[in-house]
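Can you give me the bound-state structure? Components:
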Amino acid sequence: DVKVTQSSRYLVKRTGEKVFLECVQDMDHENMFWYRQDPGLGLRLIYFSYDVKMKEKGDIPEGYSVSREKKERFSLILESASTNQTSMYLCASSHAGGYTFGSGTRLTVV
Amino acid sequence: SQELEQSPQSLIVQEGKNLTINCTSSKTLYGLYWYKQKYGEGLIFLMMLQKGGEEKSHEKITAKLDEKKQQSSLHITASQPSHAGIYLCGADADKLIFGTGTRLQVFP
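Here's the bound-state model for the whole set.
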């Protein structure tokens, strides 16, 4: 089975900190995605990547950046964390239409 | 851009009852996914539908895609507390987009 691993289940960071959320998949998938999930808003796409060193903005990229230096790893970066970035962050990878999600990182910015 | 609307937003049912969750798309669906999410956890893949009129079942959960490929329903028969969670429909629109989810609670 494809495994998508997010490095932290829970994170608490201070306003203004630089935050890295890591996602690793073990099945050589080309496509990787970062979503955030908020009550009443569902899942919203932040960034996605179709290949190494390639990235595309999703629906809500403001305040975020990403890095894909290796095929298996897709990092989400909050350059200067703010309280409105408190959320559940979900990473996914896909190949030929099948999507697999990580277990999520619940980030709280205080 | 394509949008997915789910209804109802929230559902509370007694154990043993049947229930249906609907997902309506603003455009033709070329791949419709159903996921379940336990509170505070990641998404678990349930089913994928691609063809108009297609129906798939897994245990007590049945999903259908209508002939026009713009609406899908998820039906749970004889619900159990283990069915509780958030159900999300997703669609392939260059990238995977989601409905806002349906929160299901099942009480004994």
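A couple of observations. Residues 32 and 49 of chain B are 5 Å apart (CA to CA). DSSP finds no helices and eleven strands in chain B.
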